[in-house]
Amino acid sequence: MGASIVNALSTKLLLEIDRNDQHYQMSFKDGGKPQGKLKVTGPAPRGRTGTSVTFTPDPTIFDDVDFRAQTITERLQIMAFLNRGLEIRFVDERVDASQKRRTSTTAGSSTTCDTSTTRRSRCSKGWLLRTDRAGQEVEVAFQWNTGYYREHPLVRERHRDH
Questions:
Q1: Are strands 136-142 and 50-57 parallel, antiparallel or unpaired?
Q2: Global pTM?
Q3: Which residues sit opposite 12 in a β-bridge?
Q4: CA 52, CA 24: separation in Å to the nearest integer?
Q5: Cβ-based burial of 111 (10 A; exposed 0-12, middle 13-18, buried ≥19)
Q6: What is the pLDDT of residue 137?
């Protein structure tokens, strides 16, 4: 979902933008009502760029507003793998201490091959192919391992580990 949808479904939303060496903030309340204009609140930390969105889901819209941190971090990890150089930081600040979690990922598809802990690699490193033509960038990473995953229901092959 985009920020405008998240904003419409939230009781509070804080938007923080680091751009052009400046840190900007704007807050919204009750489904998207601005609580002031976008304002510069200081310099961007260490020249950082990016956007942070902090929100509280509206319990009058959603039956359950309790998020599973594991589900969120798994989705963020996929996004980091698919976007080389993207840094994603997730901080779970809920009151329950057992749920406190902080993760930070800076990855790309080249590290995707190194993340499988359930399968043994058949070679020491994976392969990374990268090309850029006419402004279109493609990156493919792969590694041969002992596992087999059947993604399509029409695939009827069986795997034997030799």
A1: unpaired
A2: 0.58
A3: 29, 56
A4: 10
A5: middle
A6: 77
